[in-house]
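To: structure subgroup
Subject: Chain for Friday's discussion

All,

I'm putting the inputs and outputs inline so they're searchable in the archive.
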Amino acid sequence: MSNCRTGCPSQDHADWGECLRASNLQMSSGDASRPTSQKKWDSELTAYRNARKQGIQPAGTTMAQVEKAIKASDKAGKAYDANTGGFKE
Protein backbone atom coordinates (compact mmCIF):
# COMPACT_ATOMS: atom_id res chain seq x y z
CA MET A 1 0.00 0.00 0.00
CA SER A 2 1.40 3.36 -1.05
CA ASN A 3 1.58 6.33 1.30
CA CYS A 4 1.27 8.66 -1.69
CA ARG A 5 -1.68 10.26 -3.38
CA THR A 6 -2.71 8.76 -6.72
CA GLY A 7 -1.25 11.65 -8.76
CA CYS A 8 2.22 11.41 -7.22
CA PRO A 9 4.82 10.72 -9.92
CA SER A 10 7.43 9.19 -7.57
CA GLN A 11 5.20 7.17 -5.17
CA ASP A 12 8.08 7.05 -2.67
CA HIS A 13 7.12 9.37 0.20
CA ALA A 14 7.18 8.28 3.83
CA ASP A 15 3.57 9.33 4.39
CA TRP A 16 0.61 11.02 2.70
CA GLY A 17 1.41 14.41 4.28
CA GLU A 18 4.96 14.37 2.94
CA CYS A 19 3.61 13.51 -0.50
CA LEU A 20 1.10 16.37 -0.34
CA ARG A 21 3.75 18.88 0.76
CA ALA A 22 6.08 17.74 -2.05
CA SER A 23 3.35 18.37 -4.62
CA ASN A 24 3.29 22.10 -3.76
CA LEU A 25 -0.49 21.87 -3.88
CA GLN A 26 -2.08 25.18 -2.99
CA MET A 27 -5.43 25.03 -1.30
CA SER A 28 -7.85 27.78 -0.42
CA SER A 29 -10.68 27.75 2.05
CA GLY A 30 -13.12 28.48 -0.76
CA ASP A 31 -16.58 29.70 0.19
CA ALA A 32 -15.77 29.64 3.90
CA SER A 33 -13.52 32.69 3.54
CA ARG A 34 -15.86 34.67 1.31
CA PRO A 35 -17.94 37.39 2.96
CA THR A 36 -20.90 36.36 0.79
CA SER A 37 -22.00 32.75 0.65
CA GLN A 38 -22.68 31.19 -2.74
CA LYS A 39 -26.37 30.77 -1.89
CA LYS A 40 -26.72 34.46 -0.97
CA TRP A 41 -24.76 35.49 -4.07
CA ASP A 42 -27.02 33.42 -6.32
CA SER A 43 -30.21 34.78 -4.75
CA GLU A 44 -29.02 38.38 -5.14
CA LEU A 45 -28.16 37.83 -8.81
CA THR A 46 -31.53 36.17 -9.41
CA ALA A 47 -33.33 39.15 -7.83
CA TYR A 48 -31.25 41.55 -9.94
CA ARG A 49 -31.99 39.55 -13.10
CA ASN A 50 -35.73 39.58 -12.32
CA ALA A 51 -35.67 43.35 -11.75
CA ARG A 52 -33.90 43.87 -15.09
CA LYS A 53 -36.54 41.74 -16.82
CA GLN A 54 -39.11 44.23 -15.50
CA GLY A 55 -37.13 47.13 -16.96
CA ILE A 56 -35.78 48.23 -13.58
CA GLN A 57 -32.10 49.24 -13.35
CA PRO A 58 -30.88 48.90 -9.74
CA ALA A 59 -27.72 50.71 -8.63
CA GLY A 60 -26.05 47.34 -8.04
CA THR A 61 -26.60 43.65 -7.52
CA THR A 62 -26.93 43.55 -3.72
CA MET A 63 -30.33 42.66 -2.34
CA ALA A 64 -30.64 46.08 -0.66
CA GLN A 65 -29.99 47.91 -3.94
CA VAL A 66 -32.41 45.70 -5.88
CA GLU A 67 -35.15 46.06 -3.25
CA LYS A 68 -34.68 49.85 -3.16
CA ALA A 69 -35.10 50.06 -6.95
CA ILE A 70 -38.16 47.79 -6.92
CA LYS A 71 -39.81 49.83 -4.13
CA ALA A 72 -39.11 53.09 -5.98
CA SER A 73 -40.58 51.59 -9.16
CA ASP A 74 -43.69 50.35 -7.36
CA LYS A 75 -44.23 53.73 -5.69
CA ALA A 76 -43.85 55.69 -8.95
CA GLY A 77 -45.59 53.16 -11.18
CA LYS A 78 -42.60 53.34 -13.56
CA ALA A 79 -39.34 51.44 -13.85
CA TYR A 80 -36.54 53.04 -11.85
CA ASP A 81 -33.18 53.69 -13.55
CA ALA A 82 -30.26 54.13 -11.15
CA ASN A 83 -28.02 55.29 -14.02
CA THR A 84 -30.09 58.45 -14.48
CA GLY A 85 -31.56 58.66 -10.98
CA GLY A 86 -34.99 58.86 -12.56
CA PHE A 87 -37.70 56.75 -14.08
CA LYS A 88 -38.10 55.30 -17.53
CA GLU A 89 -41.01 56.44 -19.62
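Points worth raising on Friday:
The first strand starts at residue 80 and ends at 81.
DSSP finds three helices and two strands in the chain.

D.
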